[in-house]
Amino acid sequence: MPHLNGLLRLCGAGLMAVALLGAPLALAADATLMGRTVTLRVLTYDDPDAPLFEGRSYATQVGDGTEFGLKTEGVQNDIDVVPIRVDIGPSRIEFSYETAVPGELATAKFNGYVLDFGGDCNLFWSARVDRDYSDFPVTEKRVFFEKGTLYVDVSGLTYDRQSRFAIDLELSGCGAS
Q1: Residue 49 in 3-state DSSP?
Q2: Number of compact structural domains in the chain
Q3: Residues 6+ apart with CB under 8 A from 140
Q4: Signal sequence: where (predicted)?
Q5: Looking at the structure, do residues 48 and 89 belong to the same domain, yes or no?
């Protein structure tokens, strides 16, 4: 019987370890951007401490439909917002230049979109451009994140009204309510 008791304790410890290791996976499986508050702004800089352009901040709660329809805001240092639609899903963000006059985006060390989902934790595990959906030349090298903020650099890229791209996100689930 002492061996059986030790075996039961060992099995119990093993099940507890599996449950604890599986908890982050279960949390990630339920992770979603839906219902979260997000703030979007356009930012352009060669030096992060001296931005060339700082767009207005727009906040909304992620839900069904298009979250943002940015329009021009007024020129700063020969740079203005190029109209774009941004639709955020549970783990995907789609960008479309369908309302913009064709052109080229300003060239800088960073010129792009800053989407802040808040929190002081690492919300994103990975970000991947959906090549099947996208016809815009943004790549994974231009998408990065820090804690709850996603950065999309579109510096120097050419667009037209058919230009669109999507970023699929793997979420950690941190900060979920």
Answers
A1: coil
A2: 2
A3: 127, 128, 129
A4: 1-28
A5: yes
